[in-house]
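Field reference: sequence -> structure
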Amino acid sequence: MKKLLGSWLTILLFTGICAAQATSILAQQKEEERKNAENERIKVSKNIPLEIYYFEQEPFAFLQNNKPTGVEIDILNEFAQWALTRKGFKMDIKYTPFKKFEDFYKSVVTGNSFVIGAGTVAINEERKNDVIFSSPYLNNVSILISNGSVETIYKKEEISGKWKNMKGITTKESVHSQYMEELKKKYLPGLTIEMVKTPMEVADRIGQQANYIGYIDIVTFWHYLKKSNVFIKIQRAFSVNNEKFGFIMPKNSELHGLITEFFESGFGFTATKNYRDILEKHLGYEVISTVEIRD
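Structure field:
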């Protein structure tokens, strides 16, 4: 009886392993079929109606002399040029700006299959449920900033006593809003958090009022320092490293395979002189070494 039971258990275990392997193989086949269908449809027409949705913020994506420019815009223009010279596809580009991050993000999620979103979107597993990411085009560090008159915190645990009267400020539905909620949950349960439209508004408010703290990207911090002489500073104990920005596409995207090849073929776009030139055009040496993709 024991031998018979052992045999049945072995058979059941083997059957379960085979079923799991079969499911994995089927998933891989479906993904390959999707990519092949995507590429075949693009090949039917040499003209691609590329729609670039962008969240307006310097120096990433903004208007200059009534023309979109910035780190993200210039990279996507390089993508369009690569598609033309390497693949023979002409991108008919339409730019659509957004003032609020949450509006930008939701519009990409529900966009058509030729939409690409540029909005300094940090790549994470939660967002992969909503969108498809390109390969990363920029590293990032999210930093907690305060007015220069606020005491520097060296140990996170200190803020419960020293910052109990502070207010938080952030942009809605951004990773920074998540970081502020985590800060509130762990250290400052009484923290009130205000929402504004852009990261620069976060920096402006903190520069004007010493009772505010908030997260912004390190490039936004650099850009603020270029524009203002107001003393704001990084509270380095709370920095979040190892983030990466990627362009986003709706789940039905027909451009994912093409932009993946653009970024990853050969040594990769981020290894080219054109990539470095874009960073040097829009950023300062103080941040380029921190944010450029090297591998």
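Note: Residues 2-44 form the longest helix (43 residues).
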